[in-house]
Amino acid sequence: MAAEVAGKSPESVETDRLAARLAREITGDVLFDRFSRGRYATDASFYQIVPSGVVVPKTMDEALRALAIARGEGVKVTPRGGGTSQCGQTVNDGLVVDLSKHLNRILSLDVEGRTCVVEPGIVLDDLNRQLRKHGLWFPVDVSTASRATIGGMAGNNSCGGRSLRYGTMRDNTLSMEAALADGTLSRFGEVSHDLSDLDASESVRPLFRDMLELGAREAEEIAARFPKVQRRVGGYNLDALVPRNARNNMAHLLVGSEGTLAFTTKVELKLWPVIRNKALGICHFGSFYEAMDAAQHLVKLKPIAVELVDRTMIALGRDIAMFKPIINAAIKGDPDAVLVVEFAEEDQADNLVRLKQLSELMGDLGFGWNNEPRKWGGVVEITEPALQGGIADFRAAGLNVMMSMKQEGKPVSFVEDCAVPLPHLADYTQRLNEVFAKHGTSGTMYAHASEGCLHVRPVLNLKLEKDVKAMRAIAEEAFALVREYKGSHSGEHGDGLVRSEFHETMFGERLVADFKEVKQRFDPEGVLNPGKIVDAPRMDDRSLFRFKPDYRVGELTTKLDWSAYPGAGGGFQGAVEMCNNNGACRKLEGGVMCPSYRATRNEKDVTRGRANTLRLAISGQLGPDALSSDEMMETLKLCVSCKACRHECPTGVDMAKMKIEVLAARAASHGLTLRDRLVGYLPRYAGLAARFAPLANLRNRSPLLRKLFERFAGISARRALPAFRSDVFVPRAGSVGPESGREVVLFADTFNRIYERENLEAATRVLVAGGYRVHMPRPASGNRPLCCGRTFLSAGLVDEARSELDRLVAAFAPFAARGVPIVGLEPSCLLTLRDELASLRKDNDAKAVGAHALTFEEFLVREAEADRLQLPLGVVADKAMVHGHCHQKSFGAFKPVEQVLRLVPGLEVETIESSCCGMAGAFGYGADTYDASIEMAELSLLPAVRRADQNTLVVADGTSCRHQIHDGTKREALHVARVLAMSLDRAEGNSTSTAAKETSHG
Ligand SMILES: Cc1cc2nc3c(=O)[nH]c(=O)nc-3n(C[C@H](O)[C@H](O)[C@H](O)COP(=O)(O)OP(=O)(O)OC[C@H]3O[C@@H](n4cnc5c(N)ncnc54)[C@H](O)[C@@H]3O)c2cc1C
Ligand code: SF4
Ligand code: SF4
């Protein structure tokens, strides 16, 4: 018992002691501060339990030492992977051990034998990327593959969409090494019933013996009560202990045990050859019921998956421009639902035969394109890989749109993965819908129809007692239906806090007593993740919810428009609460989100960690003034405001915009740092600095000044600042280009104007050569050039940004009113007119300016598509490697960059698969962020540029991106406008133009 220390409870004394011991003995992160603990209090469920602390061990030895220390201090331990569990498996008080950051290697790989041994923290996509070159993959392809870890997948007995062929995690786990709560490290694998193949000295022998005896003793009860569906992941896998075969695999008892029995240290996996050929049959149905009923027949053709897409999702797809052509190609007429049937035999000819059989089968089942609605239907065959990929993307995006509801009520996961035998799927679905309707709600359905596993989340507002009651009632009624159909109440996502309570109803008293016996035998002191699977609290215990009964957000002063969302701060609360912790921002490759996480792999540095911190802060759970605190600044420090989350987060969490609010709150309460002033006010002093350029640039040349700048302004001495020049670009007074040419406004942004006038000159040249009349409007009053206010926003100076935008709108609105496009070169500046401007001004002038704002390339593509662009272009190089600015990617403005480059004759265009360049405005210059900036750039961008040969053009539209590329590789990257200007020069035989000269050494 801990002694009372002045003002401290015994628990907090114990926690302090635990923290101190861990910090002494562990080199990995030991996180016991309120902010960090808050970030580990949630998973993708609706629960929230704040742990006493978090350890992020660097080695497995450290992980096991943390377990031993916690046990010694009487503290519970919960292992954690990606934290994407939907049922609250990963939240608990006590110590959370995060294995995802460091313990993520493949330890051995046997290509011939198709097996590998991995550490539990490895992410599935990462594993499969490494296996692909050997023609192998691990096929338990969960939808969260980009962030789910093998340890977590084993913990939950996860299942992929293709489990019909490949089975669940249990079917693909050969053995495990795991530590028991008392620290005993053992191998869990195949053993004979009499354990004769186990060494007599094995300490785990008595445990195995007891478990196998339990399996033999309970064989009949297990046979009677365990649902006979493949998708049964609830409870402990007692069926693995039954003496059915000659041998039992003890690892299969650990699979699905949700961290409650042992702490997994290694997993041996069964691997499969990669799928090479596929064919899809899109089976159409005029009636949803008929679709669900047909599934039982379609599986007889042995597809690897049968996935349901319903009417709502098809409608969502039709509304999204990029999916419209896919829907048009894949969907015929107006079906109530379709089943996407996937065949993947080694030989494509086999797949095609099965497609034919599928059409025949649909005919035999009475479906035809000319039938009455109930029996209307047929098959659309999809064999082109691109369209198959498009359908997969559409399904993923459709789900995202459903998850992005902005209202208070949200789709809630608690009966979301029940599975019933296929012959009952149609009736079950119909009756479940009736249950929802009875309780005043509904939910969009999608299903792994091949396994009878139905995904559905009814819409509820869990902040309201009445909706919590409805949730409980729906759960009870839904599980009663599942029981009636002899199905599984937990068909994919596990038990956690949401379902464990119902085990007795589903499995019966006796089996639940057996579950308790297993837990007691493995972990008598209840150290490992207690309260899951056995001895669980009520699922509707609101004290365990993320939104507890006393959850409140006080009034907040905000600067931007959040009115699309509900809640305090003009809707800021609702925007923050959009994060449902699904973890998509933890992906390690593909897209841009989230570059800071990719560099550090810290929960603090990912969109989810930031959104959770903000939610806790605005609801007063992190103490007073948490929103503008130092800890909050630390939480947002590495957010480079790339806006990738706005585009890629399934629920549209826009952290870059939220960061502006936090910076504004900070500026209001703490004032500005010198660096904020230097960055924010750049547009205001740039003119003066240009006049005294040699003086202003002294800092770059003097090591002493660099050091002083680092000390007093926080600007890294290791960075050269962009050099001021006296010959800044001055927008022309009149217009240029043919009098009768189509009009266009060219926005001379601050960065290109003061640092790289060549880009603006090149753009003018290209536009004039294309026959356009180019306007560069000046401000209505004063001489200071126009600016979008971006730098002010990055320092939280929202009012200053607004006044810059007011000047800009006043100058551009008359052109926008006439329908003249407003074209900009710097993506972040131009896109401010489409993004933050709308958040600051709602008037028609601002709307018109936003609506007419186009990036240079968007404008050219639009003109080319309208057959209005004639540019005499010549050959400039064989190849260009292009890096997209994050804001271009976030606003779908990157594709036009590739399209415009492809206008250049003979130019092969290769896109660098990069996330953010890491420079991100002023981020890369910060003394405290320099290292992270370089790490981000080194993830993919800089290595790719270094691989480019000297004759290859390196193209990047962002000022910051070009600086980062130069700093990291000494290569000069070019704006697309410069490439086009060079190309015009070449066509005219003028190879000595400025642009060409400056590039030739690049
Ligand atoms: C949008 C969405 C879609 C999903 N789709 C699917 C799907 O298609 N199929 C599916 O099966 N699931 C799905 N899930 C659920 C979840 O993503 C999976 O269960 C996933 O495998 C969990 O992996 P994780 O690394 O996040 O595990 P975590 O959530 O971190 O942990 C899961 C469990 O494993 C335990 N655990 C973790 N590491 C260890 C260890 N080393 N030793 C012992 N126990 C450990 C934890 O304590 C916890 O109980 C989905 C979830 C979301 C949010
Ligand atoms: S920020 Fe978005 S992607 Fe990340 S966990 Fe939250 S909802 Fe998911
Ligand atoms: S803006 Fe970029 S860095 Fe910031 S949270 Fe979003 S994805 Fe991550």
Q: Can I get a quick summary?
A:
The chain is built from 45 helices and 28 strands. It has 1002 residues and is an alpha/beta fold. It binds flavin-adenine dinucleotide and iron/sulfur cluster (SF4) (2 copies).
Q: Would you write up a description of this structure?
A:
This protein is of the alpha/beta class and 1002 residues long. Helix content is 42%, strand content 12%. The strands form 8 sheets. A 6-stranded antiparallel β-sheet has the order 17-14-16-15-19-20. It has a 5-stranded antiparallel β-sheet with strand order 5-6-12-8-9. A 4-stranded mixed β-sheet has the order 1-2-4-3, with helices on one face. A hairpin with a 5-residue loop joins strand 8 and strand 9. Helix 10 packs antiparallel against helix 15 and helix 42 crosses helix 43. The longest helix is centred in the middle third of the chain and has 20 residues. The protein is globular and about 90 Å long. It starts with 9 loop residues before the first helix and ends with a helix. The N terminus and C terminus are likely disordered. The site of one iron/sulfur cluster has 15 residues, from helix 22.
User: What percentage of amino acids are in beta strands?
Assistant: 5-15%
Radius of gyration: 30 Å
| Number of helices, where a helix is a run of at least 4 consecutive DSSP H or I residues | 45
User: What's the helical proportion of residues?
Assistant: 40-55%
Give the topology, please.
Blueprint: H1 10-25, E1 29-31, H2 34-39, E2 53-56, H3 60-72, E3 77-80, E4 95-98, E5 106-110, E6 115-118, H4 124-132, E7 136-137, H5 150-156, H6 163-166, E8 173-179, E9 185-188, E10 190-192, H7 205-217, H8 219-225, E11 247-249, H9 251-254, E12 263-270, E13 272-273, E14 279-285, H10 288-298, E15 305-310, H11 311-318, H12 324-330, E16 337-343, H13 348-364, E17 377-382, H14 385-403, E18 410-411, H15 425-438, E19 445-448, E20 453-456, E21 459-460, H16 465-484, H17 496-499, H18 503-507, H19 509-522, H20 572-576, H21 595-600, H22 607-618, H23 630-636, H24 644-648, H25 655-670, H26 674-680, H27 682-691, H28 693-696, H29 698-701, H30 703-713, E22 742-747, H31 750-754, H32 757-769, E23 772-775, H33 790-794, H34 798-817, E24 822-824, H35 827-832, H36 836-840, H37 844-852, E25 853-855, H38 856-865, E26 879-883, H39 886-890, H40 895-901, E27 908-911, H41 930-939, H42 941-947, E28 953-956, H43 959-969, H44 976-987, H45 994-1000
Parallel strand pairs: 2-4, 3-4, 22-23, 22-24, 24-25, 26-27, 26-28
Antiparallel strand pairs: 1-2, 5-6, 6-12, 7-13, 8-9, 8-12, 10-11, 14-16, 14-17, 15-16, 15-19, 18-21, 19-20
Helix pairs in contact: 1-3, 7-19, 10-15, 11-14, 12-14, 15-16, 32-44, 34-37, 38-40, 42-43
This protein binds flavin-adenine dinucleotide and iron/sulfur cluster (SF4) (2 copies).
